[in-house]
Amino acid sequence: MRLKLASAFSCLAVCLCLAAPLTAQPTPPVALADPAAYVASQFGASFKVDPKIPPMFGDLDGDGKEDVVLVGTSSTPLLSKEQFNFKVEDPYDSYFGTGDPRITSQFTLHFDGSSRCFLIVFGWRQPQAKSKQVSKFVLINTPFESASIVNLRLKKKNIQAIEAVDRSTLHALVFWDGRRWRWSAQGMDGDDSFKMPPAD
Fold it and tell me: What pLDDT, in 10s, does the model give residues 72-96?
């Protein structure tokens, strides 16, 4: 009887040892299940998700961690920036010389009056640590009907950016230059530095 019990305990110990590495593995992250709840938790209740454009994923700041871009609407994008620690930028109007969001947030550039904006979180799968470094952004006033993440080459460096296509079919790029967000229309004078990276 004792031999049978000892044998049973030995088998159980072996099974537990084999199972331990499996249970110790972290659960792989899942897709963004509830964009509306995520936006409310990261940017505040004044932002509503635009369901017509699904979340977009890429590495926009080049740190090797996945970033998320959502499209939302808000008539008061500056209201909760201190509470939720995000930065509001207007790369479109900055391109034309007037980029102060305190002024340009009063503009209406979307033809449907929706005040749509890009909501961006760097490293969205990582725990959001409390630090002085801003990792969340609201980009206002970019005119677009559709948007997607594209691979680009800028100054001999491969980057990812948001390609925004407006109702006139103008293709523009919204990208992070390491310090701030910039807007650039493909094909405009002085903006021919953008090229698709060579195929692997």
Answer: 999 888 889 999 999 999 999 899 8
Q: What is the pTM of this model?
A: 0.75
How many Å is the maximal CA-CA distance in the chain? 89
Single out the residue of 126, 117, 143, 129 nearest to residue 44, CA to CA.
Answer: 117
117-143 per-position pLDDT tens digit: 999 999 998 876 655 566 999 999 998
CA–CA gap between residue 142 and residue 164 (Å, rounded): 8
